[in-house]
Amino acid sequence: MIPAIDDVNLLAARVRKSIPDGLARGEVSTGLYGLGFLGRWAVPRLIARGVKLVACYDANESIAGTTYHGLPVHHSGVLESSRPEFIVITARHAVEPVSSMLSGLTIPHVSYDAWHVAENFPEFRHVHDDVLFDERSRQVLRAVLMTMLTGKTNYCAAACEENQYFCLPRFFESGSEHFVDAGAYDGDSVEKFISTRHGAFAKIYAFEPGPRQFSTLKTRIERLLVEQAFDANTIEAVNAGLGDGEYLASAGTTSGQMTNLAVGYDSAGAGVALRIVSLDGFMKERPVTFLKADVEGMELALLKGARSTIRRNKPKIAICVYHYPTDIPEIAGYLAGLVPDYRFALRHHSRQFMETVLYCWVD
């Protein structure tokens, strides 16, 4: 059962009480557990806050003995002997087992997600009470917050539903759409979009920066053009990512899966070179009626590079808000500032802590 918002608030208060008073004043020797996508994002932010980080720990033996932001990286097996006073867990998909291990070692700890929610609960409460359009959205937000506070994914499983990006009535069966797919990957969402429109649409722009992914995207588009007899000019595949400007970047994956190609992650110089463009610069005055975005943590940068397009067109938007703990209030707030008329809904499309999507539209 998904708790009421006041019960979520009580849990957040308990998390706040569990955190040492001097943690953000550099008075507690602190380790970070999990140097993946979230961990690499969190390290400089924790240092900037004044947290006394002394080391990073990870179960991945291949990165043991390296450094990150000047911090030594150790295998998790040395925790018992090194014993920092406190641990911040950023292994987002393994919070429960890591927490159990640390409890067995009697090392106090908190997940980064739980700490962020606990400290910033009023922001999430504002989204819950004042921003979201319907009760289902508020239920989904409470489920996501409970997973962030506890590490238990059963709350996300309880809120899960199908048809990611197209589950709301306004987001399917609309004719004459000019659809932008940011993070098109292998073309799966392009094909789903075409299916929801029964083949009737004006134009698709599919942006994918990864070379391997783009090759697969092109192959899929070629198949769709043959199977459904589209005019080849109705689908434009663009080998670039969308951000807040035009530049070259390096990207890699901490998980080894090519669905997780994140800009800024470059493992020992083995990253993939990518081209980044802004939506404003690429589209110029061309119309956009529907923007879908899953860009591995670059969502806010994408929106900043699409300010003029969004203000002018007020497109429907389905954008992922799960990559960083700051995403939900930050992205909702930014979009509301661009288009005050936007309505917002939140849906979750996975049994795990991933695939949370913010839907925006103008009535």
Give a structural overview.
38% of the residues lie in helices and 22% in strands. With 363 residues, it is α/β, with parallel strands linked by helices. The strands form 3 sheets. A 7-stranded mixed beta sheet has the order 9-8-7-14-15-17-16, with helices on both faces. It has a 6-stranded mixed beta sheet with strand order 3-4-2-1-5-6, sandwiched between helices. A 4-stranded mixed beta sheet has the order 10-13-11-12. The two termini are 32 Å apart. The mean pLDDT is 94.
Provide mean pLDDT, rounded: 94
Gross morphology is globular
Class derived from helix and strand content: alpha/beta
The amount of helix comes to: 25-40%
Low-pLDDT ranges: none
Largest sheet, if any? 7 strands, mixed
Distance between the termini: 32 Å
Oligomer: single chain
Based on DSSP secondary structure assignment, what is the total number of beta strands? 17
Q: Strands of the largest sheet, in order across it?
A: 9-8-7-14-15-17-16
Q: What's the number of helices?
A: 14
Rg over CA atoms: 21 Å
Report the portion of residues in β strands: 15-25%
